[in-house]
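Our preliminary data section would be incomplete without showing what the modeling component actually yields. Below, a chain of 225 amino acids is followed by its predicted structure, encoded as tokens that our downstream tools consume directly.
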Amino acid sequence: MSHQAFVLTRNSHAESIKNKSGHERFLAILSSCGFTITTGAIHPPRSVLNSTHIFFIDAEYCNPQAMLKLPVVNDYPELNKVIFNAPEDNVDFHLDVLKKGINGIFHTHDNLELIVRGVQQVQTGNKWFSREIMSRYIDANLAAKTKSVTPLQITSSVLTKREMAITQKIAEGAQNQEIADNFHISVNTVKTHVYSIFRKTDCRNRVELIKWFDNQYRQIQPVNY
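Predicted structure:
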């Protein structure tokens, strides 16, 4: 089964061959994993992103600070995003990427077997980071649990009734298609609701939203709509 992949990069095929970078090798691996690839140096329109299975960002596209400010990183929380061609030594950048909801990083010098295994993992929606980065991220989140949360009576009015119902479904592990079927709405409508929920709750991905829901709504009866 072929999946659509958009690769945001400034590297042309000729430049990749000339510089012997990992760019061309990575694209070849994507093709071997069943992706249909579109490349571009300009952020694509929403219509393209709606049909994109994974959005790959070439780490050579811009510097790390600018990359974390890209519209695709900040404005499309539901999109499966991955960075490749990244150096291994910038640990803080890796942590920031994980916090931004990006699902994986591939390094310039990763071997073929590792990249193929990682691509297969992100292809199914799993994360792909080094054990050190994941360990630091988990430790930071455990520490954050000791901090106070916003009072329930204030945040309970943040979401609409429909958004609360969708949040509950996400907390139960439902994916967009299942939510759409449950509420008899389109998947795109679900995505719009999820984007609004993320914005209102300051969550960057489903993991953070589930933790937010655990803190805020477990004391409330299930929401029926």
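The radius of gyration is 19 Å. The beta strands are 3-8, 35-40, 54-58, 81-86, 104-107. Preliminary results of this kind motivate Aim 1 of the renewal.
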